[in-house]
Amino acid sequence: MKFPQTHTLEQIATIISCDYVGDKNFPVEGINEIHVVTPGDIVFVDHPKYYNKALQSAATIILINKKVDCPEGKALLISDDPFRDFNKLTKYFKPFEKAENRITETAQIGENTFIQPTAFIGNHVKIGDNCRIGANVSINDHTVIGDNVIIQSGTVLGGDAFYYKNRPEGFDRLLSSGRVVIEDNVEIGCNCTIDRGVSGDTTIKEGTKLDNLIQIGHDTVIGKKCLIASQVGIAGCVIIEDEVTLWGQVGIISDVTIKKGTVLMAQSGATKSLESKVYWGTPAREVRAKLKELAYVKQLPEFMKKIN
Description:
Largest sheet: 10 strands, mixed
Strand content: 25-35%
């Protein structure tokens, strides 16, 4: 999330009441998670395991819970609870905005776009030309939809990310300030859920088609001309490249990349990044190797008879 205007390090430290290391006029342009940070962004880190990754990332301001040497060209915000203070910044720069109408006044709707009477269009949503939005669809704040997009009944775009910190008193949600971006010529079936990014965008690129009952997690990017069948579940921060096919009930864990042209057969589970092949099973394996393995398993009873 980029701020409406550049702020200084001192201004940000004042908002969250913390100390800082660096020039008080050091420019701060936004907040982001580590996988999408750019210069000018704040990234937070609260575990020693990830200190170096955060300090060496593209982010130039690190919100951290320990005084460490500040890398050249960067600044630090020293907080006793970076998770809490990251949420404070989200609330400050993108507070919750209630809707006054079923289609909000700040929504922008393109020409020849049809919206069924029971759909909800949130604040600052942008919808392109020649789109069709079905009954009981919810398109939440700041979602961007291109031209010639079809969204079938019951789908929800822009729900909050499933991202929590486990505290002694219970789970603490990391607030979402990102968007959902749907490019041109995408079709989304009934009862799908596509979560917005925590601070960046969850993106579905041009020409991709989604069946019914699909879950897509926060900050995931799905490439062009992908085909995704019913009941697929994709976790957050996944990259799916162009022309990938996911058949029914495929599951994909977070932080993996599925290469261009990959096919995952029904009920497969991707537990690591995959190359451009056909896969089956959980964990997903190249389909020919998996079939060969099953053929050997079928021979086990006869083999056991021979050795007994």
